[in-house]
């Protein structure tokens, strides 16, 4: 079992913009605007990767070499192959599915070790998120993501909730907890105060008429929220 993890540098919390778009041109425009607003983590969302392939990661890294580039692969199988593809294309962090078999998680962690990058594991649709998160931590994950998906938000009529599971995970995991699901400037400070280290923001920024202004508002909402060293 691989547990080789590099120490984190910098302050928490971090904001990650999820570029769940289809056109690379649109993604690059929003990524640049968000980065100017001090959004440090830039995610090539699953739709973008499916539409534009590994080119999306290469171009994001080329455009913003100092940013942390996240590849939301949602890998369920063939972890070693897909992790290698994403890292070779410039991803600093690759996100895979927590529903994957343990051997897929282990293989992904081995490739992560070889490249010296990071591995995020997403709990989307996981039936027992707290139990699975602890298993994933032992299997070698660097970050756990508690995720309320877009379709789930539509069906339930609500976004990410400050649930006991979220607070429990933030308190008990030794690795950083990320959260995604309708985060906006009103919700962001509450999520960060609950212990979430990485706030993944999609529609608030990507769906805005002015992504730069939306990103500034989101980042500004977190000022004074536990800027802890990693």
Structural overview:
By secondary structure, this protein is an alpha/beta fold. It has a domain at 11-120 and 182-229: Aldolase class I (TIM Barrel, Alpha-Beta Barrel), CATH 3.20.20.70. Helix content is 43%, strand content 20%. The protein is built from 11 helices and 10 strands. It has helices spanning 24-36, 46-52, 55-63, 79-88, 102-115, 129-139, 150-156, 164-172, 188-193, 203-206, 211-220, and strands at residues 11-12, 14-19, 41-44, 68-75, 93-97, 118-122, 143-147, 177-180, 198-201, 228-229. The strands form 2 sheets. Strands 2-3-4-5-6-7-8-9 form an 8-stranded parallel beta barrel, surrounded by 7 helices. Helix 1 runs parallel beside helix 3 (55-63) and helix 1 (24-36) packs across helix 11 (211-220). The longest helix is centred in the middle third of the chain and has 14 residues, at 102-115. It is globular and about 45 Å long. It starts with 10 loop residues before the first strand and ends with a strand. The relative contact order is 0.17. The model has no long low-confidence stretch (mean pLDDT 92).
Topology (SSEs and partners):
Blueprint: E1 11-12, E2 14-19, H1 24-36, E3 41-44, H2 46-52, H3 55-63, E4 68-75, H4 79-88, E5 93-97, H5 102-115, E6 118-122, H6 129-139, E7 143-147, H7 150-156, H8 164-172, E8 177-180, H9 188-193, E9 198-201, H10 203-206, H11 211-220, E10 228-229
Parallel strand pairs: 2-3, 2-9, 3-4, 4-5, 5-6, 6-7, 7-8, 8-9
Antiparallel strand pairs: 1-10
What is the fold named in CATH at topology level of the domain at 11-120 and 182-229? Answer: TIM Barrel
Q: Mind telling me which CATH architecture of the domain at 11-120 and 182-229 this is?
A: Alpha-Beta Barrel
Major beta sheet, strand line-up:
2-3-4-5-6-7-8-9
Gap between N and C termini, in Å? 24 Å
String of helices and strands: EEHEHHEHEHEHEHHEHEHHE
| Low-pLDDT ranges | none
The count of helical stretches stands at 11
Gyration radius over CA = 16 Å
The count of β-strands is 10
| Envelope shape | globular
CATH class of the domain at 11-120 and 182-229: Alpha Beta
């Amino acid at each position: 079992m691989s547990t080789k993890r590099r120490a984190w540098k910098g302050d928490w919390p971090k904001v990650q913009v999820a570029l769940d778009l289809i056109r690379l041109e649109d993604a690059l425009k929003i990524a640049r605007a968000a980065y100017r607003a001090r959004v440090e983590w830039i995610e090539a969302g699953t739709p973008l990767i499916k539409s534009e392939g590994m080119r999306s990661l290469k171009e994001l890294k080329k455009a913003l070499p100092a940013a942390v580039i996240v590849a939301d692969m949602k890998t369920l199988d063939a972890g070693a192959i897909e992790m290698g593809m994403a890292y070779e294309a410039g991803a600093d962090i690759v996100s895979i599915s927590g529903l994957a078999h343990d051997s897929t998680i282990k293989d992904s962690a081995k490739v992560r070790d070889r490249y010296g990058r990071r591995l995020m594991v997403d709990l989307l649709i996981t039936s027992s998120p707290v139990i699975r998160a602890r298993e994933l931590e032992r299997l070698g994950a660097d970050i756990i993501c508690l995720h309320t998906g877009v379709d789930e938000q539509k069906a339930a009529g609500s976004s990410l909730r400050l649930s006991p599971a979220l607070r429990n995970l933030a308190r008990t995991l030794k690795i950083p907890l990320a959260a995604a699901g309708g985060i906006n400037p009103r919700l962001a400070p509450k999520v960060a105060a609950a212990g979430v280290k990485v706030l993944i923001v999609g529609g608030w920024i990507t769906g805005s008429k002015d992504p730069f202004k939306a990103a500034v508002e989101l980042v500004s909402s977190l000022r004074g929220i536990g800027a802890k060293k990693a």
